[in-house]
Design goal:
five-stranded mixed β-barrel, alpha+beta, KH_dom_type_1, KH_dom_type_1_sf, about 25% helix, Exosome_cplx_N_dom, RNA binding, EXOS2 protein, 5 helices
Length: about 250
């Protein structure tokens, strides 16, 4: 027997409500609502909570704060070099409390805390956008968790249940190394797309449907006849989600 189960009268009984997972003879039950358990290679979205010596503490929806070491980031300009005492003094210039970042899980400490890195130019500080927090169990594992959707916005589906929705950048700026956030005003049309996507994600979460690029896009397209604020009305939510679910089943079938 594995996690989330116990034995009574020689029967295996689930101790949590969730999904049964079998690996050969090992039976586990993964809880539907649980804190995030990091796995190496996961993409996460997190918020800086503390600046410490040579490291940042990051809130990633797990039991313990995650750690981003100064040696695990690319400095502005994207250069790879040894981090000096001057870099340590300037840590708050790169990331300070309250900043949102996207990162990858590099390793896991013995106590279960997660160590992050942002060594690729696609990771780094997040600028204008909306953060949506959902249960980590609803985010489907995929090859990529960065999606530029055809409706004009992009999403980062963090494995930790933090989802970042932002306007699709017109050009990829590789010079900044991921540490200059674009704080230009976002046009109304982009804000409407982002708000609609956010409400669609909340609708899918209400009906416990897995979140990935296709399910979000189908839900977005099904919501277009409705006003953005109406999407969260229970009867509209149900109609939109049923249509999206049917399209998913048709595409899989």
């Amino acid at each position: 027997r594995g996690h989330g189960t116990y034995v009574e009268d020689e029967k295996l009984i689930a101790s949590v409500a969730g999904v049964v997972e079998r690996v050969n003879k090992l039976v586990c039950v993964r809880a539907l609502k649980a804190r995030y358990n990091g796995e190496i290679g996961d993409i996460v979205v997190g918020r800086i909570t503390e600046v410490q010596q040579k490291r940042w503490k990051v809130e990633t929806n797990s039991r313990l704060d995650s750690v981003l070491l100064l040696s695990s980031i690319n400095l502005p300009g994207g250069e790879l070099r040894r981090k000096s005492a001057e870099d340590e003094l300037a840590m708050r210039d790169y990331l300070q409390e309250g900043d949102l970042i996207s990162a990858e899980v590099q390793s896991i400490f013995s106590d279960g805390a997660v160590s992050l890195h942002t060594r690729s130019l696609k990771y780094g500080k997040l600028g204008q956008g909306v953060l949506v927090q959902v249960s980590p169990s609803l985010v489907k594992r995929q090859k990529t968790h960065f999606h530029d959707l055809p409706c004009g916005a992009s999403v980062i589906l963090g494995n930790n249940g933090f989802i970042w929705i932002y306007p699709t950048p017109e050009q990829k700026d590789d010079k900044a190394g991921g540490y200059t956030a674009n704080l230009e005003p976002v046009p109304l049309s982009d804000r409407e797309v982002i708000s609609r996507l956010r409400n669609c994600i909340m609708a899918l979460v209400t009906h416990k449907i897995m979140l990935f690029d296709t399910s979000i896009l189908y839900c977005y397209e099904a919501s277009l006849p409705h006003k953005i604020k109406d999407i969260l009305k229970p009867e509209v939510t149900e109609e939109i989600v049923l249509e999206a679910r049917q399209r998913l089943l048709d595409s899989e079938g």
